[in-house]
Amino acid sequence: MAPSATITETEAPSLPHTLKARLLGAYKELAPVKYNKDVEEGKTAAKAAKYPNYLPTWNPNQKYGPLQPFEHYEHGKDADTSYPELLPEGASVNDLTPTIGTEIRGVQLSSLSNAGKDQLARYVAERKVVAFRDQDFADLPIDKALEFGGYFGRHHIHPTSGSPEGHPEIHLVHRGEGDKTHETFFENRTSSVAWHSDVSYEQQPPGTTFLYILDKPETGGDTLFVDAVEAYNRLSPLFQERLHGLNATHSGIEQANASVAKDSIKRREPVVSVHPIVRTHPATGQKSLYINPQFTRDIIGLKKEESDAILKFLYDHLAYGADFQARVKWEEGTVVVWDNRVTQHSALLDWKSGQRRHLARITPQAERPYQTPYKPSS
Fold it and tell me: CA-based Rg of the chain, rounded to a whole angstrom?
């Protein structure tokens, strides 16, 4: 691959299904790593990308060493939980479900003071995912958007994803105009649902996370979220207690292999980390299930069959929990903020129009997952 990592082909090299399975393991790779540059820049009759400064590049010269530990400060602990700056008089607040998901209008995130940002971190930890409408994030200089996100933690640089030229801290979700790779994807899959918490294989995975829309299909491409706190609360006390003290491995190896298999980049060597199955949020004290089928591999200390059985139950429990899930529909100007410590999410590849879907993610890292002792619900 040439150092200018804007590639113009629209299809990745084809691999036999058995080889893909061996390379990727449990990881379900959705994102294209190539696109037609002339189409995206509007040099043909097709509609150009609205934000060409956010078109993805994959630069093979970007190489980074292992992530080093850092001390994360959780600003949500400082928040005034009456939310006077985040939710001023006149703001429109609509809860999507009782436990997860809120839609807010009349608040401009980029104008928040530090106190407002503290309230944002706490409010999102409580509501799990919040869609802010009519935002100016996409129109800010990328440096300014990163400055805002940096308040919430150290920026994560994704090991394999596309990023805007010169800004590897931005993770891009991009499917170009006319892209039809879904046809190949569904040759071997019946569903595009892939529940995960972002890069949970890192020693210090993300906390408060921002995803904002740049281009969207006319319909389709929604994002699903599940409340991992409510999922934990639904379990019986005996099962909750049994999960406490258990740890699981989270692997980035399969994601790196998927990128290499498509002749794309690997910015860092992949890692495997061990995290508690039940983690505690530092601001709310809430406990949540912290395992996901994209990155979790096994439970430490159990035999394979035992580990597989427990993990499958937990994955199914989260996936089937429609009564503690929310579905976010994208509108122009939307910024979705969620807390990766207490949720999982899945993009949906459900539109067949070939229309562009283009989003940018700012991914501040948080504390290393930890667990507080089990206490029965009162």
Answer: 20
Q: What is the DSSP letter of 101?
A: -
Helix (H) or strand (E) holding 175: strand 171-175
* Assigned token pair, 2: 């040439």
CA distances 192 to 269, 304, 348, Å, are: 27, 26, 6
CB 100 within 8 A of CB 230: yes
Q: Where are the alpha helices (DSSP H) in 90-196?
A: 114-127, 142-150, 181-185
Q: What is the pLDDT of residues 137-168, one digit of tens each?
A: 999 999 999 999 999 999 999 999 999 999 99
In whole angstroms, give the CA distance from residue 81 to residue 99: 17
Q: How far apart are CA 250 and CA 154, in angstroms?
A: 20
Residue 145 identity (one-letter amino acid): A
Instruction: Using pLDDT thresholds of 50, 70 and 90, give the confidence band for residue 376.
Output: confident
The answer for residues whose C-beta is within 8 angstroms of residue 75's C-beta and 6 or more apart is: 114, 117, 118, 121, 151, 152
DSSP helix/strand/coil, 307: helix
Spatial contact of 365 and 154, defined as CB atoms under 8 Å apart: yes
Give Cα separations from 110 to 86, 113, 139 (angstroms). 11, 9, 11
Length of the chain measured in residues: 378
Look up tokens 């949540």; give the residue: 288
98 Cβ contact partners less than 8 Å away, ≥ 6 residues apart: none
Strand segments, DSSP code E, in 257-352 are 272-276, 278-280, 287-289, 296-299, 325-328, 335-339, 343-347
Instruction: Write the pLDDT tens digit of every residue in 214-227.
Output: 999 999 999 999 99
Contact predicate 292/206, CB 8 Å: no
Can you tell me which residue has the tokens 């046809």?
183
DSSP for residue 210: E
